[in-house]
Structure formats: structure tokens, C-alpha cells
Amino acid sequence: MTAPTVDTGARDRAAAACERLSVALAAPARPVTDDDAQGRRWHGQSLYRGAAGTAVLHGVRAQTGDGPPSRVRTWLTEATREDVSAASTAGLWFGAPAVGFAIATAVPGLCPATLQQLDTAVARLVGARLDAAEARIAAGRRPALAEFDLVRGLTGLGAYLLHRTQPDDQADRQLGSPDPGADGELTRRVIAYLVRLTEPLPRAVDEFGADVPGWWSGAVPSGETAHRYPGGHIDLGIAHGISGPLAFLALALRRGLTVPGQAKAIDRICRFLDRWRQNGPAGAWWPERIGRNELRHGRPRQTGPARPSWCYGTPGIARACQLAAIALGDTARQHAAERALADCLNDPGQLRQILDPRLCHGWAGLAATAWYATHDAATDRIAAHLPRLLEQLTALAEQLTARDRPGQDGLIDGDAGIALTLHIMTNTAPASWPACLLLT
Fold first, then answer.
1. Which of 119-128, 200-209, 228-237, 380-389 has the lowest average pLDDT?
2. Mind telling me which InterPro entries this protein's record contains (predicted)?
3. 42, 221, 301, 396: which has the fewest Cβ within 10 Å?
């Protein structure tokens, strides 16, 4: 299944909105003061809300002839003003992995020496994070979400490795790989770790033992209280939860990077998500997280679908399930995942909860998810909603550019992500940047 042809008038309007957002982001508008080194570093090295993410926008547009290369150089210079962080807090969306992702995506085949240095730093970071995770497992302790999630954890670092060694990326492959060894050894170590994460924790030192999955986190969710989540929780989303590892394992399997037990691990996560899929009047949905009492009683505290965002909601989870089903050749599960996403797109009650135009929590993330799901879909159920999604996102982009405001930096939570989503929906050239969202 491929995406339908976009109406010429809608394409032109969306392309014009994309151009205006890109012009507003031609150069950094909010220089960070010299006495705030940490602020400068964060502003530069972030895909979420910073220069690295904005560089991706201008690089992709320059490659399709829609923008000048000078903007790419401006933003990459901003991204690398400070020493690039390869500390334990670095992850796909911040630090060396984020800057490496931005350079490889924005100017593929260029900056070989810089990319080699960043790849080496990322490889060391991945090795250290894997060693720490193995020590944690051996000690019988539960993982923090940041150990395995997409944003900060090993799923995101695995996505970086996969992005840097993908088979169609011939220019980058000739420059070297972040993987020690040509056979993807480090990526396979990440895959093997995630396979192990799906198994019960051996010698668990807490009260749960083997009664909870290996990805149960003992941490209290951000913004919640220990009273509401005694003993921890499970996050189901794609940004911080188990749908991220599911999407990554499936994408790796589709590209031929496999380890023993990988298909079983994918199926194990899918069965867990099947168990927690809820069926309402408007279709299937998933809770954002599950606590101990919910696990014990087999039903979520959440009584209906929350905001249909890429990061926590049904769209991201459904896309992960679709990728998993395709990787396993499970037609029935693929149809179920695609039906869940299509029903979500058809539900005014869910759509009214989206108040943000950007990728992480808003309309751009919903549109990008639907766009990539459509390209893999077995039916045209999702594709039927793309014209309306493009129209909505275009209107929001026009409102942003109509105001007297500088562009908001960043890919994931900035205007660059809105512009790039409009770009992919109006351009036939392939785009690899959604790898940082595990959409492709």
C-alpha cells in the first residue's frame, strides 16, 4: 500500500506553509548568554528543542532543492559550539547521538571526520550503558525507564546505530560505522539486551519476582505520586515505554539484524499489548501506563483513550504493533493495529484532545505516524484520513507564521518538526529523519 496522491491545491498550500516556517528558522533567534554554558550546550545538542533538530529540517530541504545549504551550516555550527556531550546522560535526543544523527541526516556523506569521532563516542556510550544494564540485571534490580527508552535509553541508542548502518545509506557506510565490526556486533548487543528485557527478571530483589515483566520499572511516573503507583509501573508508550523497544526490535528484524529469541521477544510484547488493549465505542485504545493494582486486577485505571499523541497514545503504540506484525508476518495482528489507528483518526472525541501542533504531543506526530503507517498498510483505511490531517496541520502552521514570533527551535518539540512533516507529506523523496521517532 502506498500513500494516496495529495490534491495539488492542498500540496501547494502545505508547501508554502513549510517554506514560511523554514524561513522563520533561517538562523537562531535566541542566542544563549555566554555565562550559561549548560544552557548553550542543551540549546545546541538537542533534537527535542534545539539547534541539532533544526539542522535536520534545513538539511532535508536542501537535499530536495527546497532550501539553501547555508542554513544547514548555520544550525550545525550552533549545534557544535560547545563540547559535545557523551556523558551517561546523553541519548538519541541529546548529546553526541543527537548531533551525530543530525549530521548524518542533514549532510549525508559529508563531515566524515566529525561523524567518525561522534560514532566512536556513541559506541563507547552504548558499551558502558550495556555493561550497566547487565550489572543491574545480575543484581536483580528493576530498570529505570531511561535505561531502555527511546529518548535517553538503549532503544534510542540502538535506533542511532541502525540509522547509521542502514543498507541504503551507502555514503555513510563507506565512511565507517559506529559498530565495532562490519556485522553489526554492537547493534546486536543492544537487540540481545532488549530481548532479555522482555523476560522475567531473574533473582528479583523486590516483592514482584516473576509476576511482572522484565520492563517493569520501580520508578514513579513523572508528575505522579508514589501513593498512586506503589512499587512502580509499566509505561506502554513509544517514547518512554515498551512500545519503543517493540518498534526497534521489529525494524531491526526487517533489516536482517537478528539475535536468538528476537522474534519471541517481539511476540511477547505484542501479547502483553493485546492483553491491555481496550475496546470502546470508538474502537481500540491502550492506557498510557499500568500500576500494581491495575496489573493485579487486570484492568486499567484509565477509563477511556487519552490524547492520541505519538509519544504516549494509541497512534505510536499502534504503529509499533503494525511494524511488529509485519516483521513476524502476522496478517491478523497487522489488520488489528491498522484498524486501531484508523479508528483513532476517525474519533472526534480523541482528536479534540490534541492542542499542540508539534511532533511529540500533537498534530504533526499524529500526521507523521499515519503517513508512515499508510505506506506499510494492507488497506486504505488509514490513507483515507491523510488529506484531513494535512489540511489541519497546514492550518496550524499558517497560524504560527501569521504571528509576529521567531521560529521555535527543535525537531521533536519545535517548529522544525511541523515543517518537516509538511515536507514529507508533499514530497516524493524518501526521508530517514523519522528514524528518531521509530516510525521507519
1. 200-209
2. LanC (IPR033889), LANC-like (IPR007822)
3. 301
Tell me how crowded residue 203 is: count the other CB atoms within 10 A of its CB. 10
Which 3 state secondary structure label does DSSP give 80?
Answer: coil
**Helix or strand holding residue 26 (H, E):** none
What distance in Å separates the CA atoms of residue 219 and residue 338, rounded to the nearest whole number?
Answer: 32
pLDDT of residue 430: 78
Distance CA 18, CA 329 (A): 37
Helix, strand or coil, per DSSP, at residue 290: strand
- pLDDT at position 31 over 70: no
Question: Which long-range contacts does 251-255 make (Cβ < 8 Å, 24+ apart)?
Answer: 251/159, 251/162, 251/323, 251/327, 251/438, 251/440, 252/158, 252/162, 252/187, 252/191, 253/327, 253/328, 254/323, 254/326, 254/327, 255/162, 255/166, 255/167
CA atoms of 101 and 15, how far apart (whole Å): 25
71 by DSSP, 3-state: which?
helix
Percent of the chain whose pLDDT exceeds 90: 81
Q: How far is CA 171 from the centre of its chain?
A: 24
- Nearest CA among 240, 241, 218 for reference residue 230: 218
3-class secondary-structure state, position 337: helix
Identify the residue whose cell numbers are 477511556: 304
pLDDT at 43: 82
Which of the four pLDDT bands, split at 50, 70 and 90, describes residue 175? very low
**Amino acid in the structure at residue 22:** S
Contacts of 68 (CB under 8 A, 6+ apart): 62
* Contact indicator for 164, 104 with CB cutoff of 8 Å: yes
